[in-house]
């Protein structure tokens, strides 16, 4: 079920955008750019309906809605699409804060993971799985897929390591919080990423890679995980020694290992083991505010119910046995429905067989959940599996929403009349990284004392995961198919340029953070954003013809 959902989401990402360095986009030959050459509303509507380049990449045909349903009222249609854009942004951010972040936090606590382990495993897995599969499929199913796969992974890496880290730094500073990042873990992640980029740069310069070289490239990630684990257990051992000589109160305050130091507020200190303060719910007075709250509650229900019915939640605050039973039963069916509506094409008979099998599995899971769970308290057995299922379904919802958001942004770009290269450089590039941005920011804001630390670790472990696993396994598959011959790397001078800017951003963080005593501040965040905007300016200038290719 998990593999099917990730596989489907990957195909959406490839078909939707496939950016080729955040500067150029591999737009298919059938595009919808000629829509502005049509003179009448009727001809535009017919063009959208008949041209394959206008087929929606998501689930809704926004161009048909704009040019057909709102052909006589284009301003109203544009407002409608903008409102839906706001709704999609809300769903994306709310799913990250209400489902994804709690799932990561509970999984890490249940597995007794430190912020370093959680940030280098769970967060990259959730944020980068689709990127990994998209890279593998791009390499193995398309003649120019190697160029697409390389640029999409590197483009995502530079966005996450500059924009996301920059936004996190500025956000933390703006909220007047002092976050001290653990120096050894930070240096480890950045140095490994720089080392990986150096190896990739050498591969690109050589222009080919053998099967054995690709295996060595992938094995770097195994070394990285072993080093992370060694540092984690070594810190655990040292911390245990400290606990043994501490008094009982100190033991209570030190139940978690502060691998990333502490998060300090200017007015009070937030300890890792400190419990959140719960405020009593205030009754809204009977005035216009009550009607406003009721209005937004009703508006939110169509957004809340589908996710609540498909994402298993076993926290005490949101515990509901009926919801859990229904969500466990509907989760497999949701994945099958998404797959079949987008890429099934198996015919009615085959589709019915798939629905029957998946539906039977869902009913069986729902029945077991109903029989073996209590109505008054969340389950206490196999909670890792429950949290893992909630984590995976929240990831599914996050990327489904992000893909639909990308489709809408692409349609808005076509309506405005932006060129495909500019769309790929801005709208599609940013849209494909919205999932990473929202999940990391939400983790920093809502993830508790260690949330920012997990998010920061994920900002470097995520790109490392994508490069070594996504590109690594892609190299393994394509080089094995050519064995004993080598796989020829597509020639693209922009690849070296992207690696250069990415390395500059990493070096900036590697120099600034130690000088600032490992504190996130405006200097770090502002510098990273300046680096990205310089990269963006060069790409835009080249796309507009102001610079040579």
TrEMBL record:
InterPro entries: CaCA_antiporter, NaCa_Exmemb, NCX_ion-bd_dom_sf. Keywords: Antiport, Ion transport, Membrane, Potassium, Potassium transport, Signal, Sodium, Sodium transport, Transmembrane, Transmembrane helix, Transport. One of its GO terms (biological process) is potassium ion transport. It comes from Lactuca saligna. Coiled coil: none annotated. The keyword Transport applies. The chain crosses the membrane at residues 73-92, 153-174, 186-206, 212-233, 323-340, 352-372, 384-402, 422-446, 458-478, 498-514, 526-547. It is found in: Membrane. Its main location: membrane. Residues 82-228, 387-540 form the Sodium/calcium exchanger membrane region domain. Residues 1-23 form the signal peptide. GO terms for cellular component: membrane. The keyword Acetylation does not apply. This is Sodium/calcium exchanger membrane region domain-containing protein.
